[in-house]
Amino acid sequence: MSDSEEYEYEYDESDQEAMDDGGGGSGDEDQSFEYTDDEEGGGQQDGEIALENAYYNAKGERDAGELDEARATFESVVTMEVGQKKKAAGIDTDEMEVDATANAAEGEGGKPLSPLKYHGTWSYKAIKQLVKLHLRGPDGRAVLRDYARMLRVASSPDAEVSPNHFEKGVNGMLDRVSNLVNNAAGPVDDDNADPRALARNVYDLTLAAFHPATGVSPNERLWFKTNLKYGQLLYEMNETAKLQLVIRDLLRSSGQPTDILEGNAGGSNVDAMLAEGGGSAASASGGTHVMEIAALQIQLYSRMKDAKRLRAAYRRAMAVRGGIPHPRTLALIQELGGKMHMYQRNFDEASQAFFQAFKSYDEAGDRSRLRCLKYLVMASMLHASSINPFDSHEARAHRDDPEIVAMTDLVHAFHNNDIKRFEKILQKNEGRIMDDDFVREHVADLLRTIRTQVIVRNIGPYTRIRLSRISKDLNDVPIEDVEGLLVGLILDGKLDGRIDQVNGILVKKTAAGGEKDGGEAKKATTPAGEGSVESRNVASLMQLTAALESLTSTISRAGSRGAGSYHQQVLQ
To answer: Helices 347-364 & 327-343, crossing angle to 10 degrees?
Structure first.
């Protein structure tokens, strides 16, 4: 076993939580290991050592599965430290129980929070561990009670909790409650154990604590970040009404109009700010906030099928200059923008948006890059582009990925007009292509595109061709589908002809001397790649066919006149 493997084996949950408490070797908890018995203040050091020993005894009980004993020991750490600080301040310790009971109700029922005095660093760490223990249940009421205590202790100068340590602790709690929601098996009858209700209450409590004007620990940056995380969680929980309220608060805080259509009318302060670019840190921060809020709006309007507001939010995000959002945020905006373009059948713009989303996800190291690569391939095929998406060096690196191999084969079949192989890949669901709802929605468009390409290629040399023959070339699709494809080609101006439904024949229009076939037929059979060798060959064949038909007609007319003269002589 190598050294690295041995260290990885010995690294357990206790070590991780130790880093969470003390900042990974540089925080307050690690500093408490510096024993200085010879220094002055020996009594104070004894109290500090007693708190430290009690705290780690509680963690040992927790790791041993003695959860009730661990809760009691963590609570004793808080009681012990409060007693020491009150004693040092000359306050009667008998009042401690009264203070704890009076302060326990704060934060419940929307009551404002206030800082908790006489609580130090060990109290903060112990209360944080209590919240984690309650989340194992989960015990909603206990979580909210001790989480409110944790926020109040951290906001007190007595605790001496650094801002970075406080932010890390809060983010850890928010991530834990979010994971409870994401891992929930289904609806829960008990409100006290409902992860969704608990998540809403924890986030509301956090936002109240960080509120810039009324919070116990006002912090506009953390309030904004918490609102963004809350909005994303509400989107995943499909709570549209609550999400709209969160977006409204975010828009007001950043000085944007609450209705995206009002801000899109032109002349707004936000538009002027975005047009100035990122010349300063303030403008860069404002642009970043606009894009982060737009990401939430785009998700919301996509789910609501509000195309008008979706377009406005996407344009607003794309108009930002100087913003520096997280690559994952930018990727999300581009991905949903690409889907918007797909529904509008703007396949070229969709391809560009999906490619940018793929690169942003790749930069963030997110596996969602493979999903966007699939969408990019699909948009390129629907655009009937001759450019292979895997020709770019960013996409080429993922060509052999198991999830992408099937899409690679699909692209090859598409460009080779191998419709049998194309349909076989879709039917067998190779690479789980059909497991994606968005891909399934556009499978009919994909099949229509490749079938159209096959028809244009196969009918090129002919002026009359049976529909049954076209059906056979298209892997035996129904005649009705063949007629629909031909009608579409005729209406789009890609085919000059008519359908003889009685005899089941496609008749392409021709003119004497082949002028029309040499010109319009050429245009009809080569929608892409005019001037290529293939198009010139097809045009030459069309001209030759028209000339042969003209010669045949002339000979037939001459033969008919000769036969008529012969019959007249016989009758005479």
So the answer is: 160
- As a three-state string, the secondary structure of 232-274 is HHHHHCCCHHHHHHHHHHHHHHCCCCCCHHHHCCCCCHHHHHH
200's CB contacts (< 8 A; 6+ apart) are 242
Angle at 473 between CA 467 and CA 474, to 5 degrees: 90
Residue pair 288/295 in contact by the 8 Å Cβ criterion: no
Q: Tell me the pLDDT tens digit for each residue of 33-49.
A: 454 445 445 556 777 88
Answering whether pTM is above 0.85, one says no
Residue 511: the pLDDT is: 47
Q: Are 270 and 255 in contact (CB under 8 A)?
A: yes
Mean pLDDT (the chain) is 79
C-alpha 2: how far from chain center: 39
Query: Would the pLDDT of 425 be above 60?
Result: yes
In this prediction, residue 430 carries a pLDDT of 67
Residue 183 dihedral angles phi and psi, to the nearest 5°: -95, 5
Sequence-distant (≥ 6) Cβ neighbours of residue 45 within 8 angstroms? 35, 36, 37, 39
Whether 77 and 122 have beta carbons less than 8 Å apart is answered as: yes
Kindly write down the DSSP assignment for every residue of 431-476, as one continuous string. Answer: GGGGGSHHHHHTHHHHHHHHHHHHHHHHTTT-SEEEHHHHHHHTTS
What's the pLDDT score for residue 533? 52
For residue 61, give both structure tokens. 């009980």
Q: Does the pLDDT at position 549 exceed 50?
A: yes
